[in-house]
Amino acid sequence: MRSDRAIDRLLILALLLGARCIGAESLKETIGLALAHDASIASAAQEAQASRLDAGSAKYAVLPSLSLGGSYQYDSGTADLTLPLGPGGRPQTLNLSQQNTIDMNAGFKWLPFTGFAQEATIEQKRLQALLADNSLDSARNDVALGAITAFRQAQAAELQIETLGSASRRAQLQIDQTQALERQGMAMKVDVLSLTIARLDYDQKLIAAKAALADALEQLKYLTGKDIAVPSPPEEEPGLSPPSLDEAGTSQIKALFIQRGILETSRTLARSKLYPTLALSGALHYGLPGVNPVQNEWMLYGVAGATVTWSYDWGGDALAAQAVDHSIARLASDEKTARERIELGYDSALRDWSAAREALDVAKASLDLAKTKMRIVDSQYGQGMASTTDFNDANLGLTQAELQYRTQLLSLLLKASQIEALSGESLEKWSVAQ
Prior knowledge:
By secondary structure, the protein is an alpha+beta fold. It has a domain at about 20-60 and about 115-255 and about 320-434: Outer membrane efflux proteins (OEP) (Up-down Bundle), CATH 1.20.1600.10. Helices cover about 65% and strands about 15% of the residues. The chain is built from eight helices and six strands; from the N terminus they run H-H-H-E-E-E-E-H-H-H-E-E-H-H. The chain has helices at about 1-20, 25-35, 40-60, 115-185, 190-225, 250-270, 315-380, 390-425; strands at about 65-75, 80-85, 90-95, 100-115, 275-290, 300-310.
């Protein structure tokens, strides 16, 4: 029966290792899957594309608009004029009505000056496109950080399973050896029971760890749209160096800067109404009867004109411009608050990272000592120089040291990604994307 249990454990271990090594996605691949699957990113991308096209279309507003047209009109009424002295001294009746009117034309209309409204509108559309792109980048960063967090949580759960499984196997090995010694009268039943209780405690923790792994993998599937096989976490710190803070590169400051530009263009639009508008137009016509209904012949002719318009709303436009000035001042206050909050969050995360880096060195030293102690106690236990309690304590200490070190390493890696997200660095430059 013990042999069957051992075979089952080996099969489970082989399946776990196989799942990790075959078809396991890297963190970079997982982030790519999450970015491609997330609906909010797809929505933001469509919004950004629509804003870019809208900005492109606004540029054509400064060009003259061209038109082609044609018309036909039939008039059933008549208009007669009788002349008292016609040819030969007799009265003559003339038909002045034009029953058939045909016109074909090609023309243009151009607004060369609108009080700077056209330029302001083009700039406003451009800034709105930049704001949409910034929202897209912010959404990508949020989704990427969420995928990194879920990925590290899955690795932490797998690490716990691996470490607890290793401790359980060490305990089972000693159980088998102690049972053999018991049959020879060289060990007591209480030693076997003590080791078995310790192994069962590890098995119980394994159940909870497997449930945590299932939850983390389910979260990854929700984020990426597919089952993710998470590889083993790294065993050594890869020598990360947190980036410096670039406040202007953060999405919050970028958004406030762009919003300020949009408000400034709105102020220009409001002030442009204080100026007159100049419109030029012209057209080439070919029609019947043209401009001479008396001759009633086809005629080619042109028309041209200029129009100047100006309106006054008794100071309403000036008040609207002043309102924009106050909105710009409000944005300046919001930017100051945002910069302080960003700096505070970055400094806090950097302190946490530095503390985690120091704690990792301590955990590594503790792990090395726990491994040395385990080797000594294991050797002494085989020689009968250490008790079951000594072995259980050493095994528990090694298990806790392994978990502490590897968990601390994962925490350090996650904190590094959080700092990169806070620093304003673009997603393509994050360490996990390299």
